[in-house]
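Researcher: Go.
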Amino acid sequence: MTDADTAPPPAPPTPPPVRVPLVTAPLGVLGSLRAARANVLSIIPEIATRQPMVSGRTAKRWHMVMDPEAIRRILLENLDNYPKSLVTKNLLRPAIGESLFIAEGAHWRWQRRAAAPVFSHRNVMNLAPVMTAAARRSAERIKAAGPRAVDMAAEMVRTTFDVIADVTFSGDGTFDAEGVHRGIDAYIAEAGRISLFDILGLPDWVPRPGRLMAGGSVAEMKRVADAAVEARRARGGSASVPDLLDLLLDGEDPETKRRMNTGELRDNLLTFIVAGHETTALALGWSLYLCAHDQDVQDRARAEAQAVLSGGAATGADVARLPLIRQIIDEALRLYPPAGMVSRTALAADTLCGREIQPGDTIIIPIYALHRHHMLWDAPDSFRPDRFADRKAVPRYAYLPFGDGPRICIGASFALQEAVIVLATLLAQFRFAPVPGRAPDPVMILTLRPQGGVWLMAEPV
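Model: Structure:
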């Protein structure tokens, strides 16, 4: 990449979001490997933000699809023909097994049916007080930090982890949730980077050196999780509002009457612990960054939050009365989708955008490019929360922060409720401003993280 590949800087005082400079042409095998290990987004060619589909070959045939109707076919109409790619499964299976995120076919379907009631509106609302308490603690920490820059990315990770630890195990002390999170995070950092073996589609039994180094910590993490599940099963549930483990233990597939065994419960809980807090933390970190660079939007959102909140922190009942706060989060998820790219493997021949798809082809949906596509969005690189004022005007398969179709993220409503509660609480109490020279660098390995942190000044109001 050269300086010419970078979008020209915007005019002050409200610059558009940081944008990853995309390559001008697809890369070869070794170039793709080097780029993907540093930042997966950097393998997306610039043309992917202007064309409905881009195809090529990097050892295997691949197709990047940005056309909403073609994406609808992949995720809904012909779902069984496009299972998750070998790369995705090879990266994640050692840590989270055949959980909902990885499983396919009948094994996925029964787990989904058993777990769906866990995230019902009623259960999510019952867990809102945990989110409110975590948001209040976050505001107290930011205030105690005094008049200095705060890394809001790290603060949001701490806040959302407080939530997931409490709603997963009710803080009963029987499970080292933070230790489990460290184990999974270490696995992703040390072994989760795409290897040449994965790009070439080599089977799981071919050793990946990085994953061998992380195997011991993953095994210990699973052992601890198994013990916690068995202890809760023997105790017969928690004493307070049912938490996620209680709800999963009670979960049953209404068609087969099957319940999750200890290994299945553990793998899904580990998935929820990591996915259930990091993606929300990322949405919040980027939301605060964007608001810091647009004081007009921030002032409007603060006025909305202050008019609604009565106790200093937002509650579950407040969420429906905070439409602008929700729009800010929607726009942050558009510009910085936590899952910036998903991939599938075609099982049988098909046609997408008039182009032939062969069995074994890799199908990539570059969500980062889809969300910034010039044919789908007006001023696609600009921060404009008002574009979500009318959700019906947004083409459904042009906006995929949680995926779509039958495999849409099962915890989407949980994540959005939590994000609105935390963002409203913080904007009601603080004015955020950028720190010169400390803009984050969007980097994706498995999720799109703000490398270098989101450093902001937080002034109480």
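Model: The mean pLDDT is 84.
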